[in-house]
């Protein structure tokens, strides 16, 4: 049995949960962080010195960083269509996973903390607007890619990249602001949101 440490409202925890569901992997989840068990304790820091969720326990194996975890789970179940064995096809999946972490995720951070989390430390109107503008710019890049593929982020087949990006679009559509219309991204989101694993693990939180 796999154990996922982290609260359900965390987008990074839901990446792991959705992946497990797509791979038919049973798991249990324990609430850690933001109102639950403290990640700044010796117990948790022994598992992840960064004091961040999620952490995956697979027997005596311990992993942190959500994108590393989902890749591990796919490799653990290999072969799987979620993470192609062909080097070129896998690189295209990795490209969009890494883009989400390095480009898309930083763009929304300030705005999301302000508008959804209502963080007192994130209430500068100028920084909120800058974050929203950057977020829209990044999302337009994804929208253009989806308009080209007419299917999924890395091509015609559903992959790990779509789990990562599907949750990102879920957050985009559920953050309260006047967002530009991105039709290809919205159509893509509706395809993903109809998947049983998404409905089971991911639909309840922005």
Automatic annotation (TrEMBL):
TM region(s), chain numbering: none
Leader sequence segment: none
Biological classification of the source: Bacteria, Pseudomonadati, Pseudomonadota, Betaproteobacteria, Burkholderiales
UniProt protein name: Glutathione S-transferase
Family: Belongs to the GST superfamily.
GST N-terminal domain segment(s): 1-81
Every GST C-terminal domain range: 86-206
